[in-house]
């Protein structure tokens, strides 16, 4: 309205800067005419020569904009000042321009030339700001100019200008989606940028324009991972979210094969495409190997958990949740719990995500249970979410303290919260059977609460709980029937009526009376109550028609004329169904089945169940609805796409890496190999063994980096020879000799020798610790260890006294990974259960720990710190290792008393610079030591462990364990037990470390490959788990 | 990402709007007002509200709702964190963040918002950079500006954005070079009826006020860094160095900033510095209730417990109270039923107590809820976790700075259940 014709500057007259003079003249001469315009004073000020007046005017205009007042009629007057010398005026003009240009497209063009000039300015900041404003003007006609400007800026010298270019890309895209292709080219170019300034902005542009073009990321993946920590916080969030999606398309699910994972095998370094044929062979077996790039992402995002920015922390947490192996997700819990201290909005979002996580990964928050306790000052929405988390975290062990907390919550003044608590109690009761009765009793007590809402909510929950086991609770049903007179909340009344109807047979006297009362008040009830009255009437009619026939008729008649059509409808339906008529409804004979069918109890589920199909931390996850622009989190691929796409240049490093990254101990196939080549002697040793053996020696000693395939066999032998001579002092060579022996005829002659060596070793003052130190001091100590571990020797020692713990009968020790070299930043740590008695404490399990330093600096002061143990568990740490030179390997021994449980022992492994949280979880079979027993003793003991203590299982023996020998091997490998000599069946005995409870295992083989496994143990948990493990071992 | 921002005051008026992309009509806020009406308390308005075409993400601070309008998927925390950063910036600039302050400085607010977001994506959020771009208003500057017509907007171009330490402005010069660090710890605790601790943990922060010329490189070390269980840093802290040596090494931003926040492991026993003896009873059938409260110091390591403030939300049935404080003053709001007692300092020789009766609604049955008691207090010159700064060193500059460190312990969310 305000613009007088004079200002219509056609697009032809783009030379805006000339205009102010004209404007000035106008202002002076034509003043009187302008009084109609609302803002003529402002216009006058803008037209003046004084910057201060202009500034004042602009400030007032900005204030108008801020208040939401329309200031568009000032556009011509403002736009003239776009080239004003005063910076603040200029900035405010920009603000105005960006806001109104869309409405005044033609006039906006006046300003363009100023920006175009700005784009060529020698000062990078001016170039950037010109691009920023230019791209913010939403005028379609300048799209080509914008495109050009963005392209230029993308190759600007200054990273700041390039950043601005990245910001401009989504602006242009939203203005004209047609420009997608050329914009993708710019994105591709900017993605290759190596500066942190650009990284966040360009990924943001990528997400906005072409999130589906995952292929653009390949070459930049590693760079983004490495830059991440230095990118500004907002960029970090965007990059992490994008990389989560990327990783889901490129890597394998680390949790796909939990079993393999637990064994911690790091079989193979990727990159097997070209060179070695051997690797192909390994690949066929497909053990899970984490792609190093996958590991890189996990490693580089972890420090960001320490960010002050909640969004960054959340982004890392979701990345770990979606990408990390199960065991590692836990590291994010602490940081998430920290966010709970933040503003309530942050808490709200974090709790939503924790609620989802806590369903999938209950364990990760268990230690932080108390952080979710509710304070009376929390806002209700926070309280309800915390309640949700507490309910999800409830387990058999924690339920009692959680219920105690809930008891306090029920007394809260916040009634919505109390109602939610009652719901939560209901859920705990359904999830954890042990406390069902306790909960039910508690809820029944609440029925006498003064607050009607509380009572009503309790009724609803009790109804659900009763449905699970109605027989036992007819007194509660009676109690509730009485309540119907007092409770007014419709939902609760309806619930009670339903209960009485459903279980009318349990309360045959009360039910008809309730119906009588309800018939009286039928007309004044709420609709849901009316429906339930009808329901009750129908059920009673079917079960007790004598007493209730008339009542039912009456209720049906009332319902027939009800105002609500649902109720009329229901009444008609019920009448047809239950009242027999001449026309003989075919269905009426099934009426009873229809109404009194056994109904499954409702499952009380968390509303957060399965929410994790949305990417955590996203808006869609929070709302549980797909939001616009949400990018689906893809499923893991079945087979990993070619990892070489991420290679940036042909790397020499790869080879180097290869050497260092040689697989640790490959023993998964040990067992199978054993039987395949029962006569395997080390000379001919199967291909895989010899190669793995060389690899082992490689990783241990620097002397043989060549490690070529062809040489392996030749190498091996001299190696062992060399060892033999070195290990002389302890006569260990015997083992090898034995090892070379035919195992089919495993038994006698060498036993004694072995035993000798063994006990000799253990007792010889040196003890295990110094023994292992000694080994380390030897240059090629690893070889010896290998012998130690791989020796398939029967250490059967016959000691005079019975039922005494003896040395392990069989050791084929499995190595587990404690710390992967990538996580450990070059320090790899593996452990195995030594199966010797731990000399310093008979109740402790011996754990051999092997450190390998892959770093190029030495690691110092390796030690254990801050063990975090379950109550009763104890740790005897290994003596601190002073120095571990690069490339070296050291083995040491520690003892852990697991208290006869398979709970993990957690502790920190410290070097002089870093510390790593690690945990050792023993398989149940390692919690025991072999016991020597004769058969009659065995039978006697077994006789005392019958009934509950005996677990029997029939199984089909696996292909590879048909022979008795194989069975012995499998069993002794799975559990540290000793065979009962000369038994009629395969019998094994052991006792648990801590409580010395006997563990007796019997395997009776039958024809057609089946066998019966019996485990007798007074610790039933151990027995059950052991059966599972042995079954698994035997049926493979 | 962020399309528009609306500021809404407690009476439901939109008093400021800013758009970064096409204009979104302010009628979108109607959905927000609806949600506000549904919520019983102001803080119960859901932070994320979906509407047919947009999503509203809001934060409530200083009784102002900051409502951001979003059009498509974005991590909600991203927006929430940004909005809080906006509030922090306003507070930093204007001293307070109230409706009046924002209205008075609407131009600066607009300039700030313009710099903080570009096309809805955060651009410059570091206070040092912003201050280089836009000078905070001071009384002196306002006077000078009106006389000379000069401006708030920095004359120089903001080079800070380009530097490798983007959080520090360049060319800092002081005549007195000083660095102050405040170690402030808050105890969060829930104490049960019988006085035993249900949960207690310590959250601490180190706030710094660094006024040092040039580009100082500081290192701060602790006597007992192992206490710190979980830490989060200002971006200036070198993470690697902390990981390796447990030393905070950083080039500080200029002025006030939060260097570190930390959490002291809940495994460590937390000293609880005060205890409460309480006896709050209602008798069935009587319209009177008893109220007795006594506070006392406990595990304070000889330091005085100061600025004690007790507050409690009494049950709805309580009409009024008639209490007698042994020290300090108390107030009771019969509408909100909030009782608060300003105790002041606890004198261990003469324990402060508040005793008397409550009158209940006649005829109503006795309330079955128990009020919780919230306590605030301060203890000067002590960090309750025992954390101690060992030394502060400066490298990279020649002058000798003045260094100061202060410890304080406060109650965080400290609740006693009755």
Automatic annotation (TrEMBL), chain A:
Q: Which GO annotations describe the biological process of this protein? A: intracellular protein transport; vesicle-mediated transport
Protein keywords: Cytoplasmic vesicle, Golgi apparatus, Membrane, Phosphoprotein, Protein transport, Transport
Function as written in the Swiss-Prot or TrEMBL entry: Subunit of non-clathrin- and clathrin-associated adaptor protein complex 3 (AP-3) that plays a role in protein sorting in the late-Golgi/trans-Golgi network (TGN) and/or endosomes. The AP complexes mediate both the recruitment of clathrin to membranes and the recognition of sorting signals within the cytosolic tails of transmembrane cargo molecules. AP-3 appears to be involved in the sorting of a subset of transmembrane proteins targeted to lysosomes and lysosome-related organelles.
Provide the AP-3 complex subunit beta C-terminal domain boundaries.
764-903
The name under which this protein is listed is: AP-3 complex subunit beta
Query: Which residue ranges have biased composition labelled Low complexity?
Result: 680-694
Where, if anywhere, are coiled coils annotated?
none
Q: Name one GO cellular component term.
A: AP-3 adaptor complex
Membrane association type: Peripheral membrane protein
According to the record, the signal peptide region is: none
User: Lineage of the source organism?
Assistant: Eukaryota, Metazoa, Chordata, Craniata, Vertebrata
Output the SUPFAM superfamilies linked to this UniProt entry. Answer: ARM repeat (SSF48371)
A UniProt-annotated Pfam family: AP3B1_C_2
Q: Give the UniProt subcellular location, in the record's own words.
A: Cytoplasmic vesicle, Clathrin-coated vesicle membrane; Golgi apparatus
| Keyword Kinase carried by entry | no
The region called Disordered is annotated at 634-741
Gene3D superfamilies noted in UniProt: Leucine-rich Repeat Variant
Which protein family is it in? Belongs to the adaptor complexes large subunit family.
Compositional bias per record (Basic and acidic residues), positions renumbered to this chain: 649-664, 714-729
From TrEMBL, chain B:
Predominantly, its location class is Golgi
Q: Name one GO biological process term.
A: vesicle-mediated transport
Q: Membrane spanning segments where?
A: none
A GO CC term assigned to this protein in UniProt: cytoplasmic vesicle membrane
- Pfam family of this protein, just one? Adap_comp_sub
Protein name (Swiss-Prot/TrEMBL): AP-3 complex subunit mu-2
Task: State the membrane topology.
Answer: Peripheral membrane protein
User: Where found in the cell?
Assistant: Golgi apparatus; Cytoplasmic vesicle membrane
| Classification via InterPro entries | Adaptor_comp_med_subunit (IPR050431), AP2_Mu_C_sf (IPR036168), AP_mu_sigma_su (IPR022775), Clathrin_mu (IPR001392), Clathrin_mu_CS (IPR018240), Longin-like_dom_sf (IPR011012), MHD (IPR028565)
Family recorded in the similarity comment? Belongs to the adaptor complexes medium subunit family.
The coding gene here is: AP3M2
PROSITE patterns given in the database record: CLAT_ADAPTOR_M_1, CLAT_ADAPTOR_M_2, MHD
- SUPFAM superfamilies xrefs: Second domain of Mu2 adaptin subunit (ap50) of ap2 adaptor, SNARE-like
Q: Keywords assigned by UniProt? A: Cytoplasmic vesicle, Golgi apparatus, Membrane, Protein transport, Transport
- Origin species: Scleropages formosus
Give the domain of life: Eukaryota
Q: Do you know which PANTHER family this protein is assigned to?
A: AP COMPLEX SUBUNIT MU
Domain (MHD) spans 176-417
Q: Does the keyword Transport apply?
A: yes
């Amino acid at each position: 309205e305000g613009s007088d014709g004079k200002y219509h500057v056609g697009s032809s007259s783009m030379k805006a800067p000339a205009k102010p003079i004209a404007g000035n003249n106008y202002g002076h001469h034509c003043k009187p005419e302008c009084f109609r315009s609302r803002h003529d004073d402002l216009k006058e000020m803008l037209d003046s020569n004084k910057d201060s007046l202009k500034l004042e005017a602009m400030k007032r205009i900005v204030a108008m904009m801020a208040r939401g007042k329309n200031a568009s009629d000032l556009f011509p007057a403002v736009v003239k000042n776009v080239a004003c010398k005063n910076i603040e005026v200029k900035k405010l003009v920009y603000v105005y321009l960006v806001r109104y240009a869309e409405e005044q497209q033609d006039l906006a063009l006046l300003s363009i030339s100023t920006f175009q000039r700005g784009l060529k300015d020698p000062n990078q900041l001016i170039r950037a700001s010109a691009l920023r404003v230019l791209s913010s003007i939403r005028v379609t006609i300048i799209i080509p100019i914008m495109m050009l400007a963005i392209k230029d800026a993308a190759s600007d010298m200054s990273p700041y200008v390039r950043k601005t270019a990245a910001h401009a890309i989504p602006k242009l895209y939203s203005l004209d989606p047609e420009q997608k292709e050329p914009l993708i080219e710019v994105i591709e170019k900017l993605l290759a940028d190596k500066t942190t300034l650009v990284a966040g902005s360009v990924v943001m542009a990528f997400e906005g324009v072409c999130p589906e073009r995952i292929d653009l990321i390949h070459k930049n993946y590693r760079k983004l991972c490495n830059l991440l920590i230095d990118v500004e916080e907002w960029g970090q969030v965007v990059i992490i979210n994008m990389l989560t999606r990327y990783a889901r398309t490129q890597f394998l699910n680390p949790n796909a094969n939990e079993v393999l994972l637990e064994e911690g095998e790091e079989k193979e370094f990727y990159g097997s495409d070209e060179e070695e044929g051997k690797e192909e062979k390994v690949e066929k077996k497909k053990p899970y190997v984490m792609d190093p790039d996958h590991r890189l992402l996990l490693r580089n995002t972890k420090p960001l958990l320490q960010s002050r920015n909640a969004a960054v922390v959340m982004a890392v947490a979701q990345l770990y949740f979606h990408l990390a192996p199960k065991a590692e997700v836990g590291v994010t819990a602490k940081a998430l719990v920290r966010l709970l201290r933040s503003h309530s909005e942050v808490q709200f979002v974090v709790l939503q995500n924790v609620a989802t996580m806590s369903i999938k990964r209950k364990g990760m928050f268990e230690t932080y249970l108390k952080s979710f306790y509710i304070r009376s000052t929390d806002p209700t929405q926070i309280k309800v979410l915390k309640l949700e988390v507490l309910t999800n975290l409830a387990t058999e062990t924690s339920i009692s303290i959680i219920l105690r907390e809930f008891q306090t919550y029920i007394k809260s003044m916040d009634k919505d919260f109390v109602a939610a608590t009652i719901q939560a109690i209901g859920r705990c009761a359904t999830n954890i059977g042990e406390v069902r009765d306790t909960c039910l009793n508690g809820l029944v007590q609440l029925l006498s609460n003064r607050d009607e809402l509380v009572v009503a909510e309790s009724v609803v929950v009790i109804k659900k709980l009763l449905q699970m086991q109605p027989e036992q609770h007819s007194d509660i049903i009676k109690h509730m029937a009485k309540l119907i007179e007092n409770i007014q909340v419709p939902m609760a009344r309806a619930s009670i009526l339903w209960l009485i109807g459903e279980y009318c047979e349990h309360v045959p006297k009360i039910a008809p009376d309730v119906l009588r009362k309800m018939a009286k008040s039928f007309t004044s009830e709420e609709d849901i109550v009316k429906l339930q009255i009808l329901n009750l009437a129908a059920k009673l009619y079917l079960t007790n028609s004598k007493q209730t026939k008339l009542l039912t008729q009456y209720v049906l008649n009332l319902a027939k004329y009800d105002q609500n059509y649902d109720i009329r409808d229901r009444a008609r339906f019920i009448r047809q169904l239950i009242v027999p008529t001449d026309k003989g409804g075919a269905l009426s004979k099934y009426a009873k089945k229809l109404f009194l069918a056994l109904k499954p109890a409702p499952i009380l589920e968390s509303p957060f169940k399965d929410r994790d199909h949305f990417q955590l931390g996203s808006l869609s996850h929070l709302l549980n609805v797909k939001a616009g622009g949400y990018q689906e989190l893809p499923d893991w691929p079945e087979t990993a796409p070619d990892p070489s796409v991420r290679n940036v240049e042909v790397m020499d490093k790869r080879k180097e890496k290869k050497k260092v990254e040689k697989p640790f101990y490959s023993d998964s196939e040990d067992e199978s190999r054993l039987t395949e080549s029962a006569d395997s002697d080390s000379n001919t040793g199967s291909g895989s063994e010899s190669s793995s053996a060389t690899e082992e020696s490689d990783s241990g000693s620097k002397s043989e980096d060549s490690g070529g395939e062809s040489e392996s066999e030749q190498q091996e032998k001299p190696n062992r020879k060399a060892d033999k001579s070195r290990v002389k002092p302890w006569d260990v060579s015997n083992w090898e000799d034995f090892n070379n022996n035919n195992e089919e005829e495993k038994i006698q002659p060498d036993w004694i020798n072995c035993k000798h060596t063994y006990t000799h070793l253990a007792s010889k003052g040196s003890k295990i610790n110094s023994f292992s130190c000694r080994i380390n001091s030897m240059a090629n100590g690893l070889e010896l260890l290998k012998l130690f571990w791989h020796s398939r020797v029967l250490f059967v020692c016959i000691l005079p006294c019975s039922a005494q713990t003896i040395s392990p009968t069989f050791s084929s020790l499995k190595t587990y990974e404690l710390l992967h070299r990538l996580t450990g930043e070059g320090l790899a740590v593996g452990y195995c259960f030594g199966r010797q008695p731990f000399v310093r404490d008979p109740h402790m399990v011996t754990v051999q720990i092997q450190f390998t330093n892959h770093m190029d600096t030495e690691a110092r002061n390796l030690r254990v710190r801050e063990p975090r143990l379950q109550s009763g568990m104890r740790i005897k740490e290994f003596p601190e290792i002073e120095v571990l030179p690069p490339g070296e390997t050291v083995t040491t021994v520690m003892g852990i008393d697991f208290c006869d449980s398979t709970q993990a022992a957690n502790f920190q492994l410290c070097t002089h610079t870093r510390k790593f949280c690690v945990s050792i979880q023993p398989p149940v079979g390692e919690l025991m030591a072999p016991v020597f027993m004769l058969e009659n003793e065995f039978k006697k003991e077994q006789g005392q462990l019958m009934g509950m203590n005996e677990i029997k299982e029939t199984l089909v023996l696996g292909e590879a364990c048909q022979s008795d020998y194989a069975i012995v091997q499998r069993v002794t490998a799975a559990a540290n037990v000793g065979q009962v000599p000369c038994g009629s069946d395969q019998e094994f005995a052991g006792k648990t470390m801590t409580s010395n409870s006997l563990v007796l295992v019997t395997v009776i083989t039958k024809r057609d490959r089946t066998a019966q496994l019996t485990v007798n143990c007074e610790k039933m948990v151990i027995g059950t788990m052991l059966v599972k493990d042995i079954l698994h071992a035997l049926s493979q | 990402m962020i399309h528009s921002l609306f500021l809404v005051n407690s009476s439901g008026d939109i008093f400021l709007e800013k758009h970064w992309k096409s204009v979104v009509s302010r009628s979108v806020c109607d959905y927000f007002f609806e949600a506000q009406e549904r919520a019983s308390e102001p803080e119960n308005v859901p932070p994320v509200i979906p509407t047919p075409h947009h999503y509203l993400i809001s934060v409530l601070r200083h009784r102002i709702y900051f409502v951001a309008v979003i059009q498509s998927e974005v991590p909600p925390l991203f927006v929430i964190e940004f909005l809080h950063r906006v509030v922090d910036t306003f507070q930093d600039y204007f001293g307070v963040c109230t409706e009046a302050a924002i209205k008075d400085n609407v131009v600066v607010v607009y300039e700030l918002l313009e710099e903080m977001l570009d096309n809805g994506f955060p651009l410059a959020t570091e206070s040092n950079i912003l201050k280089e771009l836009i000078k905070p208003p001071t009384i002196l500057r306002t006077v000078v500006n009106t006389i000379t017509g000069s401006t708030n907007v920095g004359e120089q171009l903001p080079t800070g954005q380009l530097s490798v330490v983007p959080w520090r402005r360049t060319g800092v010069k002081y005549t007195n070079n000083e660095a102050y660090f405040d170690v402030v710890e808050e105890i969060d605790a829930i104490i049960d009826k019988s006085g035993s601790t249900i949960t207690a943990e310590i959250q601490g922060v180190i706030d710094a006020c660094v006024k040092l010329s040039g580009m100082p490189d500081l290192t701060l070390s602790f006597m007992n860094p192992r206490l710190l269980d979980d830490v989060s840093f200002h971006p200036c802290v070198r993470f690697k160095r902390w990981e390796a040596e447990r030393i905070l090494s950083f080039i500080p931003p200029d002025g006030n900033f939060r260097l570190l926040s930390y959490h002291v492991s809940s495994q460590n026993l937390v000293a609880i510095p005060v205890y409460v003896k309480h006896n709050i009873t209602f008798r069935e059938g009587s319209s009177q209730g008893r109220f007795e409260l006594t506070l006392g110091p406990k595990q304070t390591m000889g330091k005085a417990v100061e600025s004690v403030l007790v507050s409690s939300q009494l049950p709805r049935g309580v009409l009024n109270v008639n209490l007698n404080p042994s020290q300090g003053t108390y107030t009771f709001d019969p509408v909100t039923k909030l009782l608060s007692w300003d105790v002041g300092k606890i004198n261990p020789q003469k324990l402060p107590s508040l005793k008397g009766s409550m009158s209940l609604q006649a005829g109503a049955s006795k309330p079955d809820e128990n009020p919780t008691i919230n306590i605030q207090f301060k203890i000067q010159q002590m960090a309750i976790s025992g954390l101690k700064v060992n030394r502060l060193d400066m490298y990279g500059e020649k002058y000798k700075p003045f260094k100061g460190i202060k410890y304080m312990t406060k109650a965080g969310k400290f609740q006693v259940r009755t």
